[in-house]
Amino acid sequence: MDIGMVGLGKMGGNMAERLVRGGHRVVGFDLDAASAAEAEGEGIEIAPTLAELAGALPSPRVVWLMVPAGEIVDRVIAEVAPNLTAGDVIVDGGNSNYKDTIRRGGELGALGIHLVDVGTSGGVWGLAEGYSMMAGGSDEAIAVLTPALVTLAPAESQGWGHVGPSGAGHFVKMVHNGIEYGLMEAYAEGFALMRAKDEFGLDLAQIAEIWKYGSVVRSWLLDLTASALAENPTMEGVAPFVPDSGEGRWTVFEAIALNVEAPVIALSLMRRIDSRDPYDYSDRLLSAMRNQFGGHAIKQGD
């Protein structure tokens, strides 16, 4: 099938390349000339404008967006939608808030244009291994998109699925990322605990390799942890600063709204936020409180 890909950065470029390898024709667009040139070298046709991208596709057109969540998604949709007709499909493969997706789906639906939200996981490994994709949208739109989803997935019937109406794909991906926060925090805490046990002289990289095979805690995240420990066992040069993409926050907000307990995900988000404050005011105040009620010494700092 023919697919328009908007956003040819690392993720979008890799997805476009996998589609081309799978026998699909991909017409791409990116404001960054370097990304467009790199994609062109992998067999992706480059359109100079979004209007020309849409014009190069047969009906029903499929325009797949791999752009950052937020206002830019609305801007791209506003620019490409006038060049589409009823029955065409816009795919949002980024990490948009599912509530925005529901709104956009309603707006496009009024024009007869389908919106499919494809929550996508796989990162930089997706080109070789395939992507895990959670798709939300109408049955009609998913049927149009299925050949591309099958090509992008790890296997024809594995790693992807139609999970519900428009918005459901991004909702499921949001929860996926919240779970990811908790898993990563648990691994980080466990290895920190073992590192602190000086008397055993534990080789953390070796332990990660042992756990990779047969252990109940084995996972792809553990595989990546093992690689990171093998490359840099002391984490020298790595700052203790952990960003969050926003999806962990949305997961916690949703848990509160639905009255669902999610303490592990919530605490893992708080730990990330705490990692960014080199002069933590709350910890300083705690030290001052201890001095006030118990006369405990205060360690001097900046």
In short:
The protein has helices at residues 10-21, 33-40, 50-55, 71-80, 98-109, 126-129, 139-152, 168-196, 204-211, 220-231, 247-257, 263-274, 281-294; strands at 2-6, 25-29, 45-46, 62-65, 89-92, 114-121, 132-136, 160-164. An 8-stranded mixed sheet has the order 3-2-1-4-5-6-7-8, with helices on both faces. Helices cover 50% and strands 13% of the residues.
List strands and helices in order, with pairings.
Layout: E1 2-6, H1 10-21, E2 25-29, H2 33-40, E3 45-46, H3 50-55, E4 62-65, H4 71-80, E5 89-92, H5 98-109, E6 114-121, H6 126-129, E7 132-136, H7 139-152, E8 160-164, H8 168-196, H9 204-211, H10 220-231, H11 247-257, H12 263-274, H13 281-294
Parallel strand pairs: 1-2, 1-4, 2-3, 4-5, 5-6, 7-8
Antiparallel strand pairs: 6-7
Helix pairs in contact: 8-11, 8-12, 9-10
Kindly report the oligomeric state of this protein. single chain
Return the average pLDDT rounded to an integer.
95
Q: What is Rg?
A: 23 Å
The helix fraction, in percent, is 40-55%
Q: Give the termini distance in whole angstroms.
A: 61 Å
Classification by helices and strands: alpha/beta
The number of E-state strands comes to 8
Strand content: 5-15%
The number of helical elements comes to 13
Main β-sheet description = 8 strands, mixed
**Uncertain spans:** none
Question: What is the H-and-E element order?
Answer: EHEHEHEHEHEHEHEHHHHHH
Shape: elongated
- Major β-sheet strand ordering: 3-2-1-4-5-6-7-8
